[in-house]
# Entry
Amino acid sequence: MSQNAEHLEPQFRSDVTVELVRAAASDRDVLYAARVSTQGEQTLESAQSDAEASARDRGLINYLMRDRHGSPFEHNSMTFYVQAPIFVFREFQRHRIASYNEESGRYRELRPVFYTPAPERNLVQEGKPGKYVFVPGSAEQHELVDREIRESSIRAYESYQRMLAAGIAREVSRAVLPLNIYSSMYVTMNARALMNFLSLRTKREDSRFPSFPQREIEMCAEKMEAFWRELMPLTAETFDENGRVAP
# Structure
């Protein structure tokens, strides 16, 4: 074994980590961006009462969302730190409307942390491609999944360690590692990009266009949405009211 990993025991997780590490995002950013096109700068300075201003602000954001005038929702930024299995990151990075920097298996020795589904995770797919549902599965199926994932992950990591110990480069040795090993990354996006991500990666009954995401990326999306709702509550509310369609 390599010197760094002698004392590291394999760990198994059924969750994901999402942290908001930096944000410059508020509903007022949307309003400034929208009004500057017709009224010029400093358009939020007015003699209106707070109640009047609040109603006008809500109406404007709803109009922008409803009629899909999307650019005002781009003048903000959120950076998230995410820990999840690698197969989740491959789905993340299909969304080319964000910036990503991921932990590199070429430059550091990867830690033996692996994903295994929680007992409540649905396991069995029923129906045809494009029209299917997932159902829980039996206790025996859950036991099989957990046992096979744990055993194969441990064997793969032992192979990885043997190659590293023999002097094989990290970028070659990592080829034996499974997709359920955890990685970490920073992802930065604006609210418009995030709404696009949420529209595809969360399953909600109030969505105009239903989506059926893999549960593990949906877990990330749910945590990201919770942070965003605190930053931009009015935008998030009108997103829901308009069928969760990205503007």
User: Anything to note?
Assistant: The longest helix spans residues 139-165. The beta strands are 11-13, 17-24, 77-85, 99-102, 113-115, 124-128, 131-135, 182-189. Confidence is low (pLDDT under 50) at residues 1-5, 44-49. The longest strand covers residues 77-85.
